[in-house]
Design a protein that fits this description.
Strand content: 25-35%
CATH class of the largest domain: Mainly Beta
CATH architecture of the largest domain: Sandwich
Structural class: alpha+beta
Oligomer: single chain
Radius of gyration: 19 Å
Number of helices: 3
Number of domains: 2
CATH topology of the largest domain: Immunoglobulin-like
Shape: elongated
Order of helices and strands: EEEEEEEHHH
Length: about 190
């Protein structure tokens, strides 16, 4: 079986960068697409890159993505068209990795889902509701008795996304974005 690279995405705690992790792992009986004999060795990887397509359809190619067992690369928001100081927009992103090795060029395509902004919004609203000031909250959020319900909806959106129900995840996320606007808490 050939090398089957796999990568995972996570938004940083401040929402201003993506962390990309190579989760391919080493070759084994339970991971036949991993690095090492009989597949491409990690040391034979010459270069790697990722093309990320944002929710608006704009594509950005980033080179120098670490390809190593569990290696991680940080991609600043400016590399995917987000102005300095702003957080990465919520939505569904497409990513295509290209890894050039000694034996072949390998590609891996995936999607990832960002809900950082709505999570931030509802955390601030929950803090306002409980009269505990949110750390670094620069807005005056209006809480509501249904703030806890929004966290469940974020969970539902993520669950829908990871179950392959992309359109449902997008619809829930759009509802949540509108709810954030009504809470006057959209400046995360």
């Amino acid at each position: 079986m050939p090398l089957i690279p796999k990568f995972a995405f996570k938004v940083s705690k401040d929402g201003k960068s993506l962390r990309v992790k190579d989760v391919t792992g080493p070759f084994s009986v339970s991971s036949p697409g991993g690095y090492g004999t009989p597949n491409e060795a990690i040391s034979a990887i010459a270069s790697s890159s990722v093309t990320i397509k944002d929710p608006e359809g704009n594509a950005y190619t980033i080179t120098g993505i670490a390809s190593d067992v569990y290696a991680e690369t940080t991609i600043p928001q400016t590399s995917i068209g987000v102005p300095p100081g702003e957080s990465i927009p919520d939505g569904v992103y497409d990513a295509t990795f290209s890894i050039v090795g000694a034996l072949a060029t390998y590609t891996y395509t995936t999607k990832f889902f960002v809900t950082w902004n709505v999570e931030c919004c509802f955390e601030k609203a929950q803090a306002a509701e409980s009269a505990i000031p949110a750390e670094g909250c620069g807005c005056s959020c209006k809480g509501g008795s249904n703030v806890a319900d929004y966290f469940y909806m974020i969970w539902s959106a993520n669950k829908a996304f990871y179950c392959g129900k992309i359109e449902s995840a997008k619809a829930i996320l759009e509802y949540l974005k509108q709810a954030c606007k009504t809470l006057s808490c959209s400046n995360c």
